[in-house]
């Protein structure tokens, strides 16, 4: 069994956060009418991608009827539609959409994870729930030795990576990278941290995040990796 397989075997049985366990399982039972024929995953969602990746994406948490249904990060909802379209366009994904774990999608040079692994009510994990989940992200980072660029999808993903990587603790508050869409920070170990608004409906439907902005972020990622 590979190190990732061992990590994910522990992760999918996690019950550290009673509120999240109750929500993910209740959602899996009640379902959305349009998905009534699905057998929901209803468990913590593992990371997904290329273990040799140089690009790491850190999101917020599984969607109640997206990843919590399908069992794969950013799969089966509108945020995933935005994400995989961009990953395909810029050469990181084998296809422009992600619908289920058996749809044939493969990632190249890219790994996707999240700050929280269970679908939270209202897409808002608590501070304690994020802390409970952090050891899984810390372990993933140790298993991904080639990461050069980290793309933080939203403020929570940004802080989660800084804490899990240790930079939050090592840097003085004034020296910590700010969250600002499109901003790139070079860390002392030469890792590049790039920020973007999360591709949630709240941001994409209101125009806070446009396709032009979104593609611009991935164009920047590609340039940073290729230079």
Compute the number of helices.
Answer: 9
Uncertain spans: none
The CATH topology? Uracil-DNA Glycosylase, subunit E
Report the biggest beta sheet as strand number plus sense, adding barrel if it closes: 6 strands, mixed
CATH class value? Alpha Beta
Q: How do the strands of the widest beta sheet line up side by side?
A: 1-3-2-4-6-5
Percentage of helical residues? 25-40%
Shape descriptor: globular
SSE layout:
Layout: H1 3-11, H2 18-30, E1 48-49, E2 55-59, H3 67-70, H4 78-89, E3 110-114, H5 127-142, E4 149-153, H6 155-165, H7 167-170, E5 184-186, E6 192-196, H8 201-204, H9 211-226
Which keywords apply here?
single chain; 227 residues; alpha/beta; Uracil-DNA Glycosylase, subunit E; six-stranded mixed β-sheet; 6 strands; globular
Please provide a written account of the structure:
It is globular, with a radius of gyration of 17 Å. Strand 5 and strand 6 (192-196) form a beta hairpin. The chain has helices spanning 3-11, 18-30, 67-70, 78-89, 127-142, 155-165, 167-170, 201-204, 211-226; strands at residues 48-49, 55-59, 110-114, 149-153, 184-186, 192-196. The chain has a single domain, classed as Uracil-DNA Glycosylase, subunit E, CATH 3.40.470. The mean pLDDT is 97. The chain is an alpha/beta fold and 227 residues long. The chain has a 6-stranded mixed beta sheet, with helices on both faces. The protein is built from 9 helices and 6 strands. The longest helix has 16 residues, at 127-142.
